């Protein structure tokens, strides 16, 4: 599947950040855990990202950056998140959100100003959804008067600018403020996860600011936030897959080393199955995330897709990490020792999920609309090129009419009738399972058509579809296919070679 | 219907004072502060001692107050509701002493009882760094003389190993090991020769940060031969039996934590998402969590009462409680956290950051005292008697009646009736088909809504299918297939359904005149509970979720009245 993902940037970044298995490396487990204990982002990692020029990956070429494709962007975030989710969140996510907003608002000066700030190595702290009235801006002569309180991810003291949602007399919008703005800052605190990011509240009481700080004078902030959320949500999903990648690596090494009942834990069929299931969940999640990223370019008028994928990937990663924690047992609960990285990622994952929680009152899209409608083959990489990302179209609330439902690829039924049967029953489901099955099947099918296919037999896809059937609670999903041994071997090979567990199976640098 | 254990718990809670008052010893503010500093809750534990909690760890036969495990369960739930770290730190003495009550000589038990009365802390030291749940591989060993044992080796990840005056140590007393090769030694640390032992540094953990999770290393530590608990060589058997008690008591610990989580969630949603006024109902995630908590309570009640009335079946009952309840509460916390988001989850300021703390604390519940796999494996080993019992509908009628009728008087707990394996399976599950028939009859009579009739059918089908698959399972000590774990997990869910159905059937009349009558009327909580359980047992099928909205008023009433979220009335010392 290598042709699908232009792996240049993620691979380059992976190489720069070093082998994450090396205990004494700049972003090795010891450094990452120690920084987390101090409630800081690892300084070595921050330096490495600055040297690499991570912020240029967040900006389009028109603003002096390198951001052209969401799948590539998602890949770079994953490369960082595999080592430290707090670093990916604290260093990159706020700045990405701000960069997207600045482009969407249409104010070239603001966008250029932010680009300059980011290319100079500055970071932007953003607000997370928290209850309360938040900030309000009211016109005051030619200026705006700002009052209220907002909660931030990221220590404002370490940021060069702040992106703050604000309620207006008509509608709502976002303010992009220099960090020097005289807001009252609460002392930053670390929470239970993403400790290095720090959280803080900012308060204003009648603070007067220039009107040009408002990115959405038209009050159309929510539509833009929804568009930005489709991109950042896809990036977050990809980052979470990076977390699962590392958790799986930790759990597999533990299970191969730990002797229980006279043999390694991986000698227990249930432990093998658990590890393999987590691997399958990771690959399924990666298929979905890949399709969601490509769909932003190819199908901008299908906003439900990113939403569905984000929820699905979040759930897959949450459940898989929970299962792995049962396998690690007490080792998943210790903030010290050789497996301490596991609990850090566990807490970070939980915290990130909370930051991106769906509010209690949110109306979820009603199930019943076929999730796979309109997924044309282009989404699955028949053509590796992608049209440019049209942010304005993402913010346009018009939803494209659904296209024809995804069909089982011609030729599959003849080559693998049993697989086609299983796939058909799943793809027809009007829920996330249907989407996931379609994504897995199509990506697999198109990749097998490539000479450099990562998975040349139907082992993986068969196991993945079966896994989806079991997860969806399909009765009569039958007994577990006998794939555990083969897939565990694949995992061990990747572990030994230091390859990633996702579709890219990327080897470490050097 | 007065449920006496709740009266006891309510009185106890009142004496602890308002947890929202930071000046109280056992306040939420204090617990948050101790957690932040990773400091042991010494003062809170002292307050619990002064209120006599430790007396409930000592059987009445030895001068304590432990007569009913239901009372102990209710008290632990109350303490865990304020703070799980404190509950775990304090209850360790029961873990450490239980073997002595079960197997120890009368003099040993009397002496230990006196020590506990005077405030001594007892610790149970089972696990070793390299062996975890594989107790047969443990290396800590003894050599023995006429009147002494000499202990060498190390125990790790032990609650209160450093703080305890006593450590009940599982030791290899026969170098060959094996099921009869281990003994329990009640070690009085104060009497060990200087230098013959050393407490290992406290381990830094994700949650329960203030608790003393450490270890102890012995080097030629000499203890008198009278330190052995019960017959030498029977240590493992004793441990496996007392773990049935402690695993049953994990139910209330989780339940209390879940209660705290739901209370925070309701408060948060009322504070920030507007009051549920004008006929509006509480958001689904809240009413679903409420339902899950009520189901977990039914399982916990059945577990605690089984200690007395279905003692011989406790090996399966305790495994079901230990697997089901912590898992249900863990999921409940996760889904509430996801629904509430960062405002409650990540905040250190909102209600002292209690939610993020209890989330971290509660992770331990699936790990310690036998992790989920160990317990599921315990059930898998008993598939044959469980399948047979189901086929023959074997039921200990008297025992079952005492377990599920909450007004029935329980027989005294008899440790000698504990069995390593249940010969008769599970009376609760094996009586499910007839209980479902009774439920179906009530549907016909129009006493309960038709939905319960459909659920009864689904449940019966599921139970039959499940036991058929369990009967087909070919026992294998070594290569247990993953499917067997899935069957065992499903069995715990069927156990939960059986607990719900039986408790509702046997107490609905008594409940009719009680403060929680509305919860029981028309099978309301049962309908909601079975809908939730069937959603796990048979996912995919669409069931009407409207029943959860009908629970909304009950949830908000119990919240506003400062009550425990419970099937049974229990007023807590809680300002709203």
Coarse morphology of chain B? globular
The secondary-structure class of chain B comes to alpha+beta
CATH evolutionary superfamily of the largest domain in chain B: Butyryl-CoA Dehydrogenase, subunit A, domain 3
* CATH T-level topology of the largest domain in chain B: Butyryl-CoA Dehydrogenase, subunit A, domain 3
Give the end-to-end Cα distance of chain A, rounded to a whole number of Å: 22 Å
* Secondary structure tally: strands of chain A: 9
The portion of residues assigned to helices of chain B is: 40-55%
Name the beta content range of chain B: 5-15%
Q: Just give the CATH class of the largest domain in chain B.
A: Mainly Alpha
Secondary-structure topology with pairs:
The complex is a heterodimer of chains A (510) and B (576).
Chain A: H1 8-17, H2 29-38, H3 43-52, H4 70-83, H5 85-104, H6 108-119, E1 124-127, E2 135-140, E3 143-153, E4 161-167, E5 172-178, E6 184-185, E7 199-209, H7 221-257, E8 259-260, E9 263-264, H8 269-298, H9 303-328, H10 340-355, H11 391-395, H12 412-415, H13 417-427, H14 432-448, H15 459-471, H16 484-497
Chain B: H1 4-16, H2 28-37, H3 42-50, H4 69-82, H5 84-103, H6 106-117, E1 122-125, E2 141-144, E3 148-159, E4 166-172, E5 182-188, E6 197-200, E7 213-224, H7 235-272, H8 284-309, H9 314-340, H10 342-345, H11 354-362, H12 372-380, H13 383-392, H14 397-404, H15 427-430, H16 432-444, H17 450-472, H18 482-511, H19 517-520, H20 524-537, H21 546-550, H22 552-560
Parallel strand pairs in B: 1-4
Antiparallel strand pairs in B: 2-3, 3-7, 4-5, 6-7
């Amino acid at each position: 599947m290598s042709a699908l993902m232009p792996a240049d940037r993620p691979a380059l970044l992976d190489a720069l950040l070093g082998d994450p298995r090396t205990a004494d490396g700049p972003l090795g487990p010891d450094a990452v855990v120690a920084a987390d204990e101090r409630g800081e982002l690892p300084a070595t990692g921050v330096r490495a990202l600055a040297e690499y020029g991570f912020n240029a990956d967040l900006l389009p070429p028109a603003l002096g950056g390198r951001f052209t494709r969401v799948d590539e962007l998602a890949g770079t975030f994953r490369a960082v998140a595999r080592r430290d989710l707090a670093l990916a969140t604290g260093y990159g996510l706020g700045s990405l959100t701000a960069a997207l907003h600045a482009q969407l608002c249409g104010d070239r000066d603001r966008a250029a100003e932010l680009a300059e700030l980011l290319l100079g190595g500055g970071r932007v702290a953003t607000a997370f959804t928290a209850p309360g009235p938040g900030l309000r801006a009211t016109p005051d002569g030619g200026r705006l008067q700002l009052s209220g309180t907002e909660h931030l991810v990221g220590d404002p003291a370490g940021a060069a600018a702040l992106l703050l949602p604000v309620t207006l007399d008509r509608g709502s919008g976002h303010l992009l403020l220099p960090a020097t703005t005289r807001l009252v800052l609460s002392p930053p605190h670390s929470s239970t996860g993403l400790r290095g990011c720090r959280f803080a509240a900012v308060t204003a009481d009648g603070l007067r600011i220039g009107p040009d700080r408002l990115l959405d004078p038209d009050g159309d902030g929510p539509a833009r936030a929804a568009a930005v959320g489709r991109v950042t949500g896809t990036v977050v999903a990809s980052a979470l897959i990076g977390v699962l990648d590392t958790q799986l690596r930790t759990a597999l090494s533990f299970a191969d080393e730990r002797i229980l009942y006279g043999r390694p834990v991986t000698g227990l069929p249930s432990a093998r199955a658990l590890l393999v299931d987590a691997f399958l969940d990771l690959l399924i999640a990666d298929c979905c995330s890949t399709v969601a990223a490509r769909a932003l370019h190819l199908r901008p008028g299908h906003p439900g897709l990113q939403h569905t994928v984000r929820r699905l990937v979040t759930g897959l990663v949450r459940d898989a990490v929970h299962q792995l924690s049962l396998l690690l047992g007490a080792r998943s609960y210790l903030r010290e020792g050789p497996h301490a990285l596991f609990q850090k990622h566990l807490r970070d994952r939980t915290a990130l999920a909370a930051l991106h929680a769906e509010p209690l009152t949110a109306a979820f899209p009603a199930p019943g609309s076929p999730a796979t409608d309109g997924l044309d083959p282009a989404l699955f990489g028949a053509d590796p090129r992608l049209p440019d990302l049209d942010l304005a179209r993402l913010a346009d609330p018009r939803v494209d009419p659904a296209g024809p439902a995804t069909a089982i690829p011609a030729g599959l039924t003849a080559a693998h009738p049993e697989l086609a049967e299983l796939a058909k029953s799943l793809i027809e489901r009007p829920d996330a399972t249907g989407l996931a099955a379609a994504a897995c099947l199509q990506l697999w099918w198109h990749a097998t058509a490539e000479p450099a296919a990562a998975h040349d037999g139907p082992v993986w896809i068969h196991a993945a579809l079966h896994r989806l059937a079991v997860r969806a609670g399909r009765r009569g999903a039958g007994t577990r296919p006998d794939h555990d041994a083969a897939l565990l071997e694949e995992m061990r090979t990747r572990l030994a070679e230091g390859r990633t567990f996702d579709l890219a199976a990327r080897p470490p640098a050097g | 219907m007065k449920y006496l254990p709740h009266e006891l718990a309510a009185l106890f809670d009142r004496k602890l004072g308002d947890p929202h008052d930071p000046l109280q010893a056992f306040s939420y503010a204090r617990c948050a502060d101790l957690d932040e500093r990773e400091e042991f809750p010494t003062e809170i534990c002292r307050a619990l001692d002064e209120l006599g909690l430790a007396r409930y760890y000592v059987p009445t036969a030895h001068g304590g107050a432990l007569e009913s495990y239901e009372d102990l369960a209710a008290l632990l739930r109350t303490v865990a509701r304020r703070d799980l770290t404190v509950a775990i730190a304090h209850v360790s003495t029961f873990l450490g002493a239980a073997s002595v009550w079960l197997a120890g000589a009368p003099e040993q038990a009397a002496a230990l009882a006196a020590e506990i009365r005077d405030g001594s802390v007892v610790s149970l030291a089972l696990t070793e760094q390299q062996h975890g749940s594989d107790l047969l591989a443990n290396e800590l060993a003894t050599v023995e003389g006429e009147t002494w044992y000499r202990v060498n080796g190390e125990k790790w990840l032990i609650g209160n190993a450093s703080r305890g005056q006593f450590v009940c140590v599982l030791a290899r007393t026969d170098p060959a090991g094996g099921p009869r090769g281990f003994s329990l030694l009640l070690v009085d640390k104060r009497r060990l020769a200087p230098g013959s032992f050393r407490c290992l540094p406290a381990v830094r953990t994700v949650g329960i940060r203030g608790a003393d999770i450490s270890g102890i290393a012995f080097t030629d530590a000499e203890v008198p031969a009278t330190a052995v608990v019960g017959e030498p060589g029977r240590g493992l058997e004793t441990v496996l039996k007392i773990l049935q008690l402690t695993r049953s008591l994990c139910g209330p610990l989780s339940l209390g934590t879940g209660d705290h989580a739901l209370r925070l969630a309701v408060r948060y949603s009322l504070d920030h998402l507007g009051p549920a006024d004008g006929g509006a109902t509480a958001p689904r995630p809240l009413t679903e969590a409420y339902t899950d908590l009520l189901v977990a309570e039914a399982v916990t009640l059945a577990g605690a009462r089984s200690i007395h009335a279905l003692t011989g079946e406790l090996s399966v009952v305790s495994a079901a409680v230990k697997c089901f309840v912590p898992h249900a509460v863990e999921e409940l916390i996760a889904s509430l956290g996801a629904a509430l988001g960062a405002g409650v989850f990540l905040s250190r300021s909102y209600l002292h950051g209690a939610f993020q703390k209890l989330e971290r604390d509660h992770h331990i519940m699936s790990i310690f005292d036998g992790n989920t796999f160990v317990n599921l494996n315990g059930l898998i080993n008993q598939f044959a008697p469980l399948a047979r019992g189901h086929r023959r509908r074997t039921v200990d009628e008297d025992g079952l009646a005492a377990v599920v009728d909450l007004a029935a008087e329980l027989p005294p707990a008899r440790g000698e009736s504990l069995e390593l394996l249940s010969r008769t399976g599970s009376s609760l599950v094996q009586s499910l088909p007839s209980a479902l028939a009774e439920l179906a009859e009530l549907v016909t009579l129009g006493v309960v809504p038709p939905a319960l009739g459909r659920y009864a059918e689904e449940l019966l089908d599921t139970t039959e299918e499940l036991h058929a698959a369990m009967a087909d399972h070919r026992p294998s000590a070594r290569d247990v297939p993953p499917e067997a774990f899935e069957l065992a997990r499903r069995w715990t869910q069927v156990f939960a359904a059986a607990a719900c159905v039986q408790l509702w059937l046997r107490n609905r009349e008594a409940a009719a005149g009680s403060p929680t009558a509305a919860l029981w009327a028309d099978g309301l909580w049962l309908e909601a509970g079975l809908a939730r359980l069937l959603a796990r047992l048979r996912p995919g099928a669409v069931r009407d979720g409207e029943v959860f909205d009908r629970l909304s008023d009950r949830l908000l009433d119990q919240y506003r009245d400062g009550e425990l979220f419970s099937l049974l009335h229990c007023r807590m010392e809680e300002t709203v």
